Amino acid sequence: MSFRSGLMTACLFGMVPMAAEAETLSDALVLTEATNPQLDSGRADADIADENLAQARAAGRTTINITATAGGQATDSNRQIPPQFQGAVGAGFNAETGIATAAIEAARPIFTNGRVPAGIRSAKAGIEAADFTFDELRQSIFFDVVAAYMDVIRDTEAVSIRKNNVDVLAEQLRAAQDRFAVGVVTRTDVKLSEARLEGARANEAAAQAQLESSRATYAFLVGQRPEDLVTPGALSIPASLEAVNEIVFTSNPSLLAAKANERAAAEQVKVARGNGGLQVDIVGSANGQEVYQEDLKPERDTNLSAVARARIPLWQGWTGAQPDPRGQAAPGTGETPDPGH
Question: Which of 85, 146, 236, 308 has the most CB atoms less than 10 A away?
Answer without folding.
Answer: 146
